[in-house]
């Protein structure tokens, strides 16, 4: 009887695995369809100089306009793409679509860089830098310095020398590199030392925690200090309150992104927003003597 029960369990396990595999296949098909039917859209979130209100960049963030479920955030579909061949197709679509949006920004008189999130797999895909060269060549109006690629620390984990070479190749074109979610991955300091880059983005978890938690505040201060020592720009992400912005200014971080400034939005709304946004008076009043 025990033997029989064991066999049944085994069969159940088998059936569950088979179901999971089938679901994965179906999700893959749905995502491929979504890409083919242009159901993905890019939202833009501004990057600003807090004190002056100058809009200095826009991060492109993907959304899935799902026919039944509505607008879905990356958390609802990126994990399904992760590690599949479709991840590369999706990533290439994002870059192409981001460059098209950059052209629209230029047409609207906004010559600001767009920041594009690049997945680990995409960054390490053979020929990524060469593909970027071709992509930029198809858009002769776009200066490469208007393109910034955001990578995460985990992205570089597998083969640091190869990633460093790819980044160096891109920077030689004048494409900027930003290290996203800084401090949340592994070996942050090694990455800083070995990867060519231009900007560090302070992860939003530290920004959220820094008002109440001295440890988070110390990390924010540390990242700002590191960026200054290495000669990198620093951007705080996830700024949700005026008080957070003020503290960041006091700590020496001038650039920020976050819902307190603007949520990610479709490009038309972005252009309209950029033409009328004013920073909070508290940020404008912040004088440079207050900087550490
Ligand atoms: P990320 O690159 O770190 O982007 C910042 C995320 O924080 C975005 O979430 C943005 O909407 C959100 N955010 C901005 N300001 C605030 C704020 O004040 N408070 C809070 N709570 N959140 C804020 P989103 O759009 O859901 O994207 C999540 C992540 O998905 C991104 O994190 C990025 O890693 C990834 N992602 C988004 N679009 C793409 C893409 O086109 N390609 C790739 N490979 N990854 C993408
Ligand atoms: Mg990002
Ligand atoms: Mg981030
Ligand atoms: Mg993130």
How would you portray this structure in words?
GO terms for molecular function: catalytic activity. With 292 residues, this protein is an alpha/beta fold. The chain has twelve helices and nine strands. Helix 6 (160-173) links the parallel strand 5 (147-152) and strand 6. The chain starts with a helix and ends in a 7-residue tail after the last helix.
Radius of gyration: 21 Å
Question: DSSP strand (E) fraction?
Answer: 15-25%
- Distance between the ends: 75 Å
Q: Can you give the mean pLDDT?
A: 92
Biggest sheet features: 8 strands, mixed, barrel
Strand order of the largest sheet: 1-2-4-5-6-7-8-9
Low-confidence stretches: none
Secondary structure: helix percent: 40-55%
Bound molecules: ligand C2E, magnesium ion
SSE order, one letter for each helix or strand: HEEEHHEHHEHEHEHHEHEHH
Number of DSSP helical runs? 12
Category by helix and strand content: alpha/beta
């Amino acid at each position: 009887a025990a033997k029989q029960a064991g066999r049944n369990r085994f069969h159940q396990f088998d059936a569950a695995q088979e179901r999971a595999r089938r679901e994965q296949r179906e999700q893959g098909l749905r995502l491929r369809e979504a890409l083919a039917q242009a159901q993905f859209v890019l939202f833009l979130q501004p990057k600003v100089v807090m004190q002056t209100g100058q809009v200095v960049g826009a991060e492109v963030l993907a959304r899935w306009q799902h026919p039944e479920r509505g607008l879905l955030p990356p958390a609802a579909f990126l994990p399904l793409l992760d590690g599949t061949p479709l991840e590369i197709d999706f990533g290439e679509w994002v870059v192409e679509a981001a460059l098209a949006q950059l052209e629209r920004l230029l047409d609207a008189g906004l010559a600001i860089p767009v920041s594009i999130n690049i997945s680990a797999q995409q960054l390490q895909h053979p020929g990524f830098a060469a593909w970027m060269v071709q992509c930029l060549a198809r858009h002769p109006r776009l200066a490469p310095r208007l393109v910034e690629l955001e990578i995460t620390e985990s992205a570089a984990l597998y083969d640091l020398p190869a990633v460093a070479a790819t980044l160096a190749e891109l920077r030689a074109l004048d494409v900027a590199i930003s290290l996203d979610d800084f401090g949340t991955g592994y070996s942050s300091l090694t990455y800083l030392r070995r990867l060519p880059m231009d900007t560090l983005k302070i992860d939003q978890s530290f920004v959220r925690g820094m008002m109440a938690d001295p440890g988070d505040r110390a990390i924010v201060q540390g990242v700002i200090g590191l960026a200054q020592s290495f000669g990198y720009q620093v951007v705080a992400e996830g700024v949700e309150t005026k008080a957070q912005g003020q503290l960041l200014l006091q700590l020496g971080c001038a650039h920020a992104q976050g819902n307190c400034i603007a949520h990610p939005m479709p490009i038309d709304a972005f252009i309209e927003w950029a033409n009328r946004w004013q920073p909070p008076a508290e940020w404008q009043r912040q004088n440079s003597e207050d900087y550490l």
